[in-house]
Write a structure and sequence with these properties.
It is a single chain. The protein has 509 residues and is α/β, with parallel strands linked by helices. It has 18 helices and 17 strands. An 8-stranded mixed β-sheet has the order 9-16-15-14-10-11-12-17, with helices on both faces. Strand 10, helix 13 and strand 11 form a beta-alpha-beta unit. Helix 1 packs across helix 4 and helix 6 packs antiparallel against helix 7. The model has no long low-confidence stretch (mean pLDDT 87).
């Protein structure tokens, strides 16, 4: 657990950061109000607001991302214009993009699609093969065979598997997580990592600085590196006490790779609530997968891409290529998504599964903040007779986001989508399973931040035994969830007004 002095450092860091940002925000608002009151300046600011509005309309991005900004800029130009300048960008800075693109180009020759897996998938299901081809073209990550997929229906089971894999490491361990928090989970894992480092295993750790800002003391990466020369760590996109649009782009991935042959992916962060050692929102349900075989190389490559882009010097790739193969059924395709792809890969994979579903699609998500494309895809699937079911939390972690999630229920229910809330507590799992053939498990929420702003990763699998395991888990979860009906959603006049306001600015959550 954190010591008292460490907690004090965290709170001091957070207090200083928030205070400086509020001072800057207040100064900007007062400055623009002062300008707005000057003769002739109000007209200039109005023209500037109109120019920015036209710029927003002309941007090549999802229309839902534009509505909130347009209202904010036009209704409150003295505030909306500077706010958009600092937070309106959903793309990384050019410097960030150049670093990531450069690292990806160096990795690309080692991520070429092998002909045999794609040929075999095309023979089984040409439509599924087209999906995998799209993922490979946009994300750069191929589809693989000979990879075993183990599905974990709860964080406790996944953590046990992660510890066992770490203890078996001989050469290297890579970790990339959004949240690290000292406690039973992280302290147990860290002890194992230090022990393996002493045995000569190379340890590389990435954590998101924003995701862990309330969890870790300042410069925690340096504290980790001081534990042993074989441990190297990086805090991604450090939080700074200044307005900066790069704060929009977080590393939301959850990746653990051991010796290149075993990899883990899912929604589980390294904090005690994820394994129910700490109860904060009832029972916490999360999921993940363990991969063993060639497909782990895609997870390794995602990690190396981020590591080489921002830590340096570049790691050589060949020592990390997997050597193990498993004679397993099905096809496995881990893929990364981020604001630099040029397309919304995570969203498009979800929409594609909905579009080709024939019998059912079951979805688990902690947040349900939908754009028009996803809403239409869900509704169209239900209208053509597909059994579409969505499980969201029964006990929310953020009340305002839960209110926004519920505001998205009504059009879905009207179309025939069935919505359930996980009665025991909070469901953090991000998964989709369809027609006993297709599954996705990973870090990508059904909200704007995951789909458009963050660096994410998921594992797509087809024809694997894990599909049945995922379906069985969702069916079990439905038995302890409460179905939501249209008649229960009667927000009244003021509630409807609040919901409309929240949905107007939902892209900012």
């Amino acid at each position: 657990m954190l010591k008292k002095t460490q907690k004090l450092l965290i709170y001091n860091r957070l207090f200083v950061t928030v205070l400086l940002i509020l001072i800057q925000a207040g100064w900007l608002v007062l400055f623009f109000r002062y300008l707005y009151a000057m003769a002739g300046v109000s007209l200039a600011i109005s023209l500037l607001a109109m120019a920015f509005s036209l710029y927003v309309v002309g941007r090549d991005e999802n229309p839902a991302l534009k509505i909130g900004w347009l209202i904010l800029i036009l209704a409150f130009p003295f505030f909306g214009v500077p706010f958009f300048l600092f937070f309106g960008g959903n793309k990384p800075t050019r410097r960030t993009r150049d670093k990531i693109d450069g690292a990806h180009r160096r990795l690309a020759p080692l991520l070429c699609q092998e002909e045999e897996p794609m040929r075999q998938l095309s023979q089984q299901d040409r439509r599924a093969a087209a999906t995998s081809q799209y993922i490979g073209q946009i994300g750069g990550y191929p589809v693989w065979r000979d990879t075993q997929v183990t599905y974990y229906p709860i964080g406790e089971a996944m953590f046990k598997g992660m510890l066992e894999a770490v203890e078996s490491a001989k050469r290297f361990i890579f970790l990339e997580f959004f949240i690290i928090e000292p406690g039973i989970m992280w302290n147990t894992l860290l002890e194992a990592l230090v022990r393996k480092a002493r045995e000569g295993v190379q340890i590389r750790i990435i954590f998101d600085d924003f995701g862990s800002v309330l969890k870790l003391p300042p410069h925690y990466d340096k504290k980790l590196e001081a534990m042993h020369p074989n441990i190297h760590a990086m805090a991604f996109n450090r939080v700074v006490p200044f307005f900066a649009m790069v704060m929009n782009n977080r590393d939301h991935r959850k990746i653990l790779v051991i010796d290149g042959d075993v990899g883990f992916n899912g929604g589980v962060n390294l904090a005690d609530e994820y394994i129910n050692e700490k109860v904060i929102h009832g029972h916490w349900k999360d999921t993940g997968v363990r991969l063993q075989g060639p497909a782990v190389w895609s997870l390794t490559a995602m990690f190396l891409e981020m590591w080489n882009a921002f830590y340096g010097p570049d790691e050589f790739f060949t020592p990390f290529v997997p050597t193990a193969k498993c004679a397993c059924e099905g096809f496995v395709q881990p893929y990364g998504d981020g604001p630099f792809n040029g397309e919304y890969l995570g969203e498009n994979v979800y929409i594609d599964i909905l579009a080709r579903a024939q019998r059912y699609v079951y979805i688990t998500t902690p947040y349900l903040i939908l754009n028009n494309e996803l809403r239409v895809a869900l509704c169209n699937a239900a209208k053509r007779g597909v059994d579409v079911r969505i499980i969201t939390p029964g006990i929310p972690d953020k009340k305002i986001v839960f209110r926004l999630t519920r505001a998205n229920y009504r059009p879905l229910l009207a179309a025939g989508v069935k919505i359930y809330e996980y009665t025991p507590g909070f469901i953090h799992a991000k998964s989709m399973v369809s027609d006993d053939t297709t599954g996705v498990v990973g870090s990508i929420n059904l909200d704007y931040r995951s789909l458009y702003l963050h660096f994410e990763c998921s594992t797509y699998f087809y024809g694997c035994p894990a599909v049945a395991q995922l379906k069985g888990d969702v069916e079990q979860t439905l038995t302890v969830s409460t179905r939501v009906f249209w008649e229960q959603l009667r927000p009244g006049f003021w509630g409807s007004a609040l919901d409309a306001c929240l949905r107007t600015f939902e892209t900012l959550f």
